[in-house]
Known about the structure:
Blueprint: E1 6-8, E2 14-16, E3 20-21, H1 34-46, E4 51-53, H2 61-74, E5 85-90, H3 99-113, E6 118-123, H4 132-145, E7 149-154, H5 159-174, H6 179-186
Parallel strand pairs: 3-4, 4-5, 5-6, 6-7
Antiparallel strand pairs: 1-2
Helix pairs in contact: 1-2, 2-3, 4-6
Protein name: NADP-dependent oxidoreductase domain-containing protein
InterPro entries: NAD(P)_OxRdtase_dom_sf, NADP_OxRdtase_dom
Amino acid sequence: MSSVPKVTLSGGLEICRVLNGMWQVSGAHGAVDKARAVEAVQDYVDAGLTTFDMADIYGPAEEIFGQFNTQLKSKSSESPVPALQGLTKYVPRPGPMERKVVEKALQRSMTRMQVDALDCVQFHWWDYGDKRYLEALGHLSDLQQEGIILNVQDINTSIRLQAQLRTLICCFITEAFSLRQLLGRLRPH
């Protein structure tokens, strides 16, 4: 296996500098041969590219990763197994954001990916005018504290919104508030 430069995310997760994007297996580009796709994953891993970027909305991407992950684990007694990193996205449909909604979606991703915890969940929200994203972030934070998620990232916030969230988080951190308390104060009543 080749050596590929790595980078460490703010949460401590080490990933390849080059990610294997799995949007191409979403089905949006034509029919996908899952068996061939699983075989292709091995080619990437053999080249040292062990970080895969997928989403709950990328068709069978999480399942393909999971099938490969299962095959890799079954070979672990034969030789050392390279560590895979699975970065997935949580892209909820607009609607209620109770914990059970968020948890069910993440459990589905974990089952598909054949993992006990999610390395990284990249949060995508369609409309930041809909403040229920704060509830979703709160639940993601709780699930991270519980070890279900190792890293949480956002992927489609504006620079303005990122700055607002950073400012609020910094203010509350200096007052020893948790993210859960912060989000509770930001939620509409």
